[in-house]
Amino acid sequence: MALLQASRPKAPPPPPAPTARRRKLRRSFIGFAFMAPLLAVNILVIAVPATQSIWYSFTDWTGLGPADFTGLDNYRRLFGDPEFRNALWHNTLWTAFFLTVPMAMGLFGAFLLSRIKRFQMLFRVAYFIPYVVATVVSGSIWESLLSPDQGIGNGLADMGLPFLDDVNFLGDPDLALGTVAFVNTWQWWGFLVVIFLASMQAVNPSQYEAARLDGANLWQEFWHITLPAIRPTLMFLGLMTVIWSFLIFDYIYILTQGGPAGSTDVLGTLLYRTAFANQEAGYAASMGVVMGLISVIAVSGFLYLRRRGWDI
Amino acid sequence: MTTPLPRRRFLQLTGAAALGTTVLSACGTGAGASGNQIELWNAFASKDIENYFQQHFVDGYNKSVSGGNSAKVRMTVKQIDTLDRLTQTAVASGSGPDIITTSGPAQTLSFVDNDNLLPLDSYVDKLGWQDAFLPWALDTGRFGGKLYALPSNLETLSVYYNPATLKQHGWQPPKSRAEFEDLCKDAKAKGITPVAAGNAEWKRATEWHVSWVLNTFAGPEILHEALTGQRRWTDPVFVDAIALLKGWFDKGWFGGGTDRYFTNKFTAMYEQLASGKAALLFNGSWTFSEITPYFGKEAGNDATWDWAPLPSMNSGVPAGVQPLSIGVAFSLNSDCEHPAQAAAALDYFLADATRQLGYLSATGVAPSPVKMPEQDFPADIDPRIKRQYLQLNSAKNIGYTTWTFWPPKSDTYLAEQMEKVLTGDLSPKDYCAGLDKVFQEELKAGKRPPLPDPNGA
After folding, report:
1. Of A154, B56, B74, B151, which has the highest C-beta tally within 10 A?
2. Interface ipTM above 0.90
3. A44 contacts in chain B (CB < 8 Å)
4. Helical H segments across B317-397, by residue range
């Protein structure tokens, strides 16, 4: 029967009746019409400024008035600029840190939480609360906590634990970037816990039961069942981490403004300073384009792997 | 299953959405005044100061022109540290307020270069500005022979101290480098921070120190030569000045050490001065509007403060140089619909000495650089503030603050890269070479603001 069906040539579908075609067109039109306002806003606030930025990156625009086309001058200058290289390096370090430390903390926290039933919601809320605190508020709180005069180190010293006394976390160029990353992690990792936990809860419990019957320990359960099962979530958050890490601005600006001595300068703070303090908006636009390109490369890599059949 | 929308309903929905988008986009174009109004964007250090300005300047002006068809001023208050950026963005998009507040001559110049400002020359004689303002101060708003900005605040750098602290340790406000260094050594030995300093809240505060050291070590004459291109910033006198400042930081005299300097806040600095934990504070006249809450009854102590002129840090440079600062200026947007009335508002805001001194007396905020005869000072003004402004009004030994007289990129370089000098990542020689490179480019491009002569002419 199946063979017969396969060997018989299929008749072409009948052309849609005029009324059916009109209905289909109308449906498509309505669909696009509903999309139109959002599309218009996106064109207005994203596509137009993005196109303008690309154009300005090839000019000597000061941020005011007309701009003269200067070809690739800004890009040539960019890659010979030690300030840019310094900022790019800090963004790279930041990305590497956020792809590892908070991700590991988030995974570990979520895995442990997935193992408990009582008070799970309490912990989830407790971990998530920092994420909903405004950056400017948490930044200011941590600035006080890390103060060498009235902060944690000072308080511990008063209690007879002087190991952090006189450590100036935000004033020492060797510690400042790591300190800002730590503060951002404090806010960020709870979010990762909640997302990973939601993903872990979708894993079929029978897989764990089977593994336990086979004598798997906790680590083996995590490595061979949990991690493969949540790989799409992990990859997506990894991708977003790369993108967000190259866009980081708020915590750096609030806590150190790129200082001391450029030790926490990232592309965002450098771009802001270049555009507004140095009045070199064209040059700043070229930095913005490079930041955008980095995100495009990350997304392209992600899509490429998906097309190659990776389950992400 | 989808239910088709009736055509009329569909058109209503899409029309409303399109209108919403248009309104949204219109909201994004900035705040130009509409109708019979003059829009002013301004920023203040505190609510009290804002209220005073609103009541005595904005409301005062609006009452003075009440009736008829006169345009009224509407003031919108912005964040003090973002006002210049907001204004730049708004003006770049072809909107912005009628009265443009700039952060001094360097930013004014960028607006002038792009034809965003109206020349004010026709009002100079009409409103008597030539007689009202100090000549050099009015000149800071002249570009290409035309007046584009009226200076809004006159400030300088001085040494602030607690007289009781100095008396207790047998010190005097230093007049020379030797006296300054002796005081610092002694203070350090006694566990007192010689100079309260920090830039945690205002990163650019580092340039205050660069400014006063350049003025007191190289001197105004040599600075004038460098600013006019007759001397290079690689000159040993500038390298030595920066090396001297770096050496003082290395000794822990400023803010208790370089790393502490980067996290010290103004609150802590004023408290240290009041409590005797710090001996001196090199700061600008804006101190008058900030220092009061930390001293006396309001702070729960009996401490007092005073100020002294800057010491001389090099032979041949007289003590008491007064680096001039114009940190704010007002201009008119070239799109201003009521230029004559907006100019009259500027005149009301800036040109009246009595009104300016009343503002100074009530809030400590720097007055505009108008001529201030002694009889115009209010009877109840703080004598320490009066002394500074009387001296500043007749200054003949004037200097140059970096944020007023350096071009924008050089100014940013000077502030940002000095941090690297302080941390040892950049040598004073390389710092000066870098400054020279940036400055010569900007000088050649005509980016340097107008300069008064060092003798105050």
Report:
1. B151
2. no
3. 21, 24-25
4. 339-350, 353-363, 383-393
List C-alpha distances in Å: B370 to B136, B353, B357, B375, B376.
11, 6, 10, 14, 11
Q: Name the DSSP letter for residue A65.
A: S
Q: H or E segment at B42? A: strand B37-42
- Alpha-carbon span A65 to A87, nearest angstrom: 28
Torsion of the alpha carbons at A134, A140, A144 and A145, rounded to the nearest 10: 30
Length of chain A: 312
Say how far apart CA B73 and CA B96 lie, in whole Å.
14
Closest residue in chain B to residue A41, using alpha carbons only: B21
Cβ contact B18–A37 (<8 Å): yes
pLDDT per position in chain A (312 positions), as tens?
444 444 455 666 666 566 788 888 888 888 889 999 999 998 898 899 999 999 999 999 988 888 999 999 999 999 999 999 999 999 999 999 999 999 999 999 999 998 888 888 898 889 899 999 999 999 999 999 999 888 888 888 888 888 888 889 999 999 999 999 999 999 999 999 999 999 999 999 999 999 999 999 999 999 999 999 999 999 999 999 999 999 999 999 999 999 899 999 999 999 999 998 888 999 999 999 999 999 999 999 989 988 887 776
Q: Give CA–CA dist B258/B264, Å, rounded.
A: 10
CB B367 within 8 A of CB B338: no
Contact at CB, B14 and A33, closer than 8 angstroms:
yes
CB pairs under 8 A between A and B: 107
Residue B254 in 3-state DSSP?
strand
